[in-house]
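ESCALATION

Customer reports they have been waiting on this structure for their group meeting. Please prioritize. Original submission:
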Amino acid sequence: MPGYAQDLPMLLLAAAAEVTDAIHDGCVAAGFTDIRPSHGFAFVRMAPNGATVGEIAEHLGVTKQAASQLVEELVKKGYAQRNPHPGDARAKIVTLTDRGWACTRAADAAAAHFTQRWGATLGPGATFELRNALARVVTPGRVRPSSW
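Update from on-call: job pushed to the front of the queue and completed.
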């Protein structure tokens, strides 16, 4: 249908930016002032069992070099640690530290608050309909930062 909801992509991008900002702001308010939204996208891949730098790179859609730099930053800031890989002596598994898990919990709380806020505006029925409609059309796991 020509003209049908042509602004949908822009609205979805704006919604994604609002979610990202709300989660980041919640983490900063919880005391995690030294992180960027891209860190959170890496945390998602590291939880619950860790990931290699290559897996993090693939998840973020960046080069291994860029992912390695991001991991190094997270290690220096105390959010992640490198561990021996159980099946490959040459590789390392990057896992969240207690600080990384605490930041993840703050992000989860901020995401829940965001959902509640939208739910209060849209109403529970419309919120569930929106959630279910998006679940039908998006590819799970393709949550990536739009910028670094």
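Sent to customer with the following note: The longest strand covers residues 80-84.
Escalation resolved.
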